[in-house]
């Protein structure tokens, strides 16, 4: 088991397999996109599998594949198949924007993937284009319907942006009435590739109050260990909703997460810009014991919460990256 100095055990790895994305969401990156990494800078399948094996040997039993948009990686499907075969892994999930996903759903189910997080900020085509700077809502909704049909564990992730998609909160919640899905509303974070005012008026408490105005019987569920989301049930709804305090960061106390970027940087906190370069260590010939020691030390040095992690970053500018380069 990998533990930090505060007694928290790391058992969940969020693995970003690519930095590229086919959307340009306003809260994630500038309109012109980013300077993508050369392919040689990305981890190879063998490097990814080696690190996943090492992490599982150290107690990680849950891996979520992220990006960028993971389905832009051409070798994703065989890579997923190998990851699901690793000893000790009980749950492999994927976070996707859904544009390219529908065609792969039967294959994902066949190799044992059951959990899909779908990024969806609006049900309105015009707002979808305004937020993502691309068309494609119909394809995302087709993916959602197919995931429901195939019985996946589905979470919809919605970033709440004042004066942008507030009108979508109730329609998105209405999706949970007849389907056993979870819709999670996320505070906007300062990761759009630019330094900007890192404040939000739509905090978790504000979002909760707004939802309660429309669903007064909203009932808070018991919190699950390590969850970043406060979960709520609505009588008569098959699904539930969640609210994630991603900016105000009220869930750090029992954090069990690690992040591995597409270029092999191990990050112990979303808000800490720097990390430990495992890819370079592999390419310099480090053996498994060396890599495990690097991981143990990084986790031991993990900050107590996101605010302290941000303060530990070498520069404030480095903190305000794109989620595509951090790993969602």
CATH architecture: Alpha-Beta Barrel
Shape: globular
DSSP summary: helix tally: 12
Please mark out the parts with pLDDT under 50 across 5 or more consecutive residues, or reply none.
none
Helix content class: 25-40%
Briefly note the structural class of the backbone: alpha/beta
Radius of gyration: 19 Å
CATH superfamily: Aldolase class I
CATH names the topology as: TIM Barrel
Query: Could you say how many structural domains there are in total?
Result: 1
Walk across the major sheet and give the strand order. Answer: 9-10-11-8-7-6-5-4-3-12-13-14
Q: Which CATH first-tier class would you pick?
A: Alpha Beta
Instruction: Give, in order, the helices and strands.
Output: EEEHEHEHEHHEHEHEEEEEEHHHHH
The total of beta strands comes to: 14
| Average pLDDT metric | 91
Tell me about the largest β-sheet: 12 strands, mixed
Organism: Sphingobacterium allocomposti
Pfam family, one: Radical_SAM
Cofactor: [4Fe-4S] cluster
InterPro entries: Aldolase_TIM (IPR013785), Elp3/MiaA/NifB-like_rSAM (IPR006638), MoaA (IPR013483), MoaA-like (IPR040064), MoaA_NifB_PqqE_Fe-S-bd_CS (IPR000385), MoaA_twitch (IPR010505), MoCo_biosynth_MoaA/MoaC (IPR050105), rSAM (IPR007197)
How are the SSEs ordered, and which strands pair?
Layout lengths: L1 E2 L5 E2 L1 E5 L28 H13 L4 E5 L9 H9 L6 E6 L8 H6 L4 E5 L5 H8 L4 H13 L3 E8 L8 H6 L7 E6 L16 H11 L4 E2 L8 E5 L6 E5 L12 E4 L4 E3 L8 E2 H6 L4 H13 L5 H7 L3 H4 L3 H4 L2
Keywords: 4Fe-4S, GTP-binding, Iron, Iron-sulfur, Lyase, Metal-binding, Molybdenum cofactor biosynthesis, Nucleotide-binding, S-adenosyl-L-methionine
GO molecular function: 4 iron, 4 sulfur cluster binding; cyclic pyranopterin monophosphate synthase activity; GTP 3',8'-cyclase activity; GTP binding; metal ion binding
Catalytic activity: GTP + AH2 + S-adenosyl-L-methionine = (8S)-3',8-cyclo-7,8-dihydroguanosine 5'-triphosphate + 5'-deoxyadenosine + L-methionine + A + H(+)
